[in-house]
Amino acid sequence: MRIIIPTCDKYRNILEANKYSMEIAGGTNLDVTVLGYKKPDFDMGTWKFVSLGEDRGAQNFTNDIIPFFQDFDDEYFIYGNDDCVFTNKINLTFLDQIIERVKKIPDFGRMWLTQTPPSYYGGSCHIVNFGNYFISEINQFAEYRLSLQYSLWKTSYFKKYLIPNLNPWEWETRGTAKYDHAAILLPVHNFVISVGHVMKRGNFLNNWYNSIYDDGRLNDEDIKLIENIFKKHKII
User: Fold this and answer.
1) Which runs of E-coded beta strand occur in the chain?
2) What is the CATH number of the domain that holds 178?
């Protein structure tokens, strides 16, 4: 499963901490492609980098990624975030179970991979017990049906809403996905990934090493190592 991480020039070097923590959490065999502008100033190893040209600002977010996705024909992909670190092990077994489950849902659109409470997004239609895990489908009228938080997307659904001239916040807050009959899902009391946010509205967050949903924390050794990465790139 390919992980696609868009970034910008301002955040491109946060990705070194992202990469370090992701490989601790899930190994070095993850298939990651970064969509950016200037190439990050660190050894990206097995991660792929696709330049989108000149960074013209967030308002060109969709304009810049459209050419990449026009030629992208994987049935599913994981949309990732640049401004985060992984704070717990990636549950690859749960991810495999999710992928097999959504293949059987004809109207599947997207599923959060973080432990996201249904109440955050207008509640849930129903919670289904699949034995050793639970999945909730959010209401058709819920907000943030198009959230750009870490998620598994059906590519055709992503492309349906990939229109020009949107910044990331406009993408997420559109109401056009309400009542579109797509299944937008959440893991319940479980997660595939646990992340902490490094930045918010352009500001560095002091508690970046804690999961945003209190389901993980980096150990002290990794915190110190990542702090050195941030200092190297003048992030702190």
Assistant:
1) 2-6, 31-36, 48-51, 76-79, 84-86, 108-112, 124-129, 134-138, 151-154, 183-188, 195-197, 199-200, 203-204
2) 3.90.550
